[in-house]
User: What shape does this take?
Amino acid sequence: MVNGTIYDFSGLPRVAALGPDALPWPPRERARRWAPASAPERVGLISNPRSHRNSTVALAGSDPRPGVVAAAPRTRAELRDVLTRFAEERIDLLVIDGGDGTVRDVLTCAGDVWGARWPRLAVLPSGKTNALAIDLGTPKEWTLDQALAAARDGGTTSRAPVVVERRDGADGAVRGFLFGAGAFVGATALAQRTHRAGAFNGVAVGLALSWAVAQTFFGSPSGEWRRGERMRVRHHERSAPMHDAALASDRASYLFLASTLERLPLGVRPFGSSRPGLKTLAIDAPPRRMLSAVGPLLGGSEAAWLERAGYHRVDAPSLDLDLDGEFILDGERFPAGRYRISEGVPLNFVTP
Assistant: This one.
């Protein structure tokens, strides 16, 4: 996960954001070239040296080989320059060495470069949670050479990112895969604490989830975990006949999630059965029957009583969401506001 932003999104500043050109990646040569002869014809690599288990940084300085253009940009301007150069060179494959935050930042900047015509992508999961890689079935120890071999063999999986943009059109869109508001913000903060304690991936998710449930259940009804936040939601053209949730609501919500992922860490299924498309979950505040509901909800149960108890699942290609509090997109915090959340252009990811 990147502890900073690499794009200028002044309308959606990160909480305690860095300066407009700041990216906490150490200075490094902008590009080197290397790859086995069997690699795809044109390959671009974005490497984040600050990712938890980055595996390609050393290659840039010690093992140059022809075939791959590699870069470790330090600022949003450098990232855009690199992606623009990749587009001009018409790369066939974009490899991203980093976690979910790195993927989010690259996709956000690349959206203005490639529009609806993207190269194939591959993710080397070197972050702390790597939810996208888990969904794609990418091994956590996947190497660059293995990704290039998989690209040569032609295996791909399609995923569309979640696109978040202000409804007033003041700024560009940000792209990621897991959006959360309400209690999800606090749970993410807990997960980041577990990272500092040395817990990563599913262990961190499990610890944060358990602590969030405990804070909610044992807290007072007026406590911050139970009282929720006001959210105004309007789904557009519901696309799946899940529970009979209202397409529009204006109420206090304990938690709101939206994602296009089909598998989540630890095998949890808060959206129900695995399926493509943009899926949402809203939980009324204060949450009712929580101890009875948490197991079935995370296990993917679609029992009707969950809807009656205030656990609402709705699939829709887009929705409008007004938030009085912050939200999280792939680990980073953004401010309250009036947003449109939609399913983006499907992208083809190379998989084993």
In short: Residues 201-218 form the longest helix (18 residues). Residues 6 and 76 are 4 Å apart (CA to CA).
